[in-house]
């Protein structure tokens, strides 16, 4: 039985594992989903306030999606927690195969990927390449932010949000929408100092992005401050209950 003092750490581990292993049941390309949502927004609004992403934004979206966070994330999770969540997801996939015979081949493919992932995690070279890819991505974005970031001036929070340089220059774009979860993942892994705060412009960008209403509503309300533990508690209880009842 877990002691209550150790619950927060365990919960954080379970949540990180869930976010990584969830890619095993992903059916669609994330970038295409973002662009599909963007098309719906442009058509629905039908005015000049929303425009399609520029070529520069699309290029950044491709660069961000090229980094697969799975191996990097799981390499920072203690093996006993990783194995527990991996076993849970394998059982979920097997159950889904039985429930949806028409999708059985897709779930079977994901099940093979789950085993393949565990094998790759034993190879330090795979983890090293994933880490180096992330560092290159962060450095490239840091360099992009440094070219347009307004330095040496003081603004109110509202002004700073409107004047701060984003990934594709001065407007918040779909590239930022794709990149913010990368930083949120690093924060959840307690790697902010190593990967975010060590880059001055990235640190400013991350600090201001967290003040955006959209961030507070979508991510901050679940993982901001003490709310993180409430969300992680639900995650931990969900896994424990489903395992106990053997309902996958």
TrEMBL record:
PROSITE patterns documented for this protein: GST_CTER
Ranges that cross the membrane: none
InterPro entries for the chain: Glutathione-S-Trfase_C-like, Glutathione-S-Trfase_C_sf, TCHQD
Domain GST C-terminal as annotated: residue spans: 79-232
Gene3D superfamilies named among the record's database cross-references: 1.20.1050.10
Entry-linked PANTHER family: GLUTATHIONE S-TRANSFERASE TCHQD
Protein name: GST C-terminal domain-containing protein
């Amino acid at each position: 039985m877990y002691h209550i003092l150790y619950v927060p750490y365990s919960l954080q581990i379970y949540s990180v594992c869930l976010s990584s292993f969830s890619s095993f049941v992903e059916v669609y390309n994330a970038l295409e989903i973002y662009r599909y949502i963007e098309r719906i927004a442009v058509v629905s609004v039908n005015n000049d306030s929303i425009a399609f992403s520029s070529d520069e934004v699309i290029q950044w979206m491709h660069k961000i999606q090229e980094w697969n966070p799975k191996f990097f994330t799981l390499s920072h999770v203690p093996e006993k927690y990783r194995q527990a969540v991996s076993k849970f997801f394998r059982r979920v996939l097997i159950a889904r195969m039985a429930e949806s015979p028409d999708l059985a081949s897709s779930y079977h493919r994901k099940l093979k990927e789950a085993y393949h992932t565990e094998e790759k995690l034993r190879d330090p070279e795979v983890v090293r390449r994933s880490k180096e890819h992330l560092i290159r991505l962060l450095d490239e974005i840091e360099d992009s932010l440094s070219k347009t970031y307004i330095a040496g001036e003081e603004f109110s929070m509202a002004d700073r949000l409107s004047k701060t340089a984003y990934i594709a220059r001065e407007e918040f774009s779909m590239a930022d929408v794709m990149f913010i979860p990368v930083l949120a993942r690093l924060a959840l892994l307690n790697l902010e100092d190593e990967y975010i705060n060590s880059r001055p412009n990235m640190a400013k960008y991350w600090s201001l992005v967290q003040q955006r209403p959209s961030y507070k509503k979508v991510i901050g309300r679940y993982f901001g401050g003490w709310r993180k533990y409430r969300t992680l508690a639900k995650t931990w209880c969900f896994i424990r209950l489903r395992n106990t009842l053997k309902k996958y």
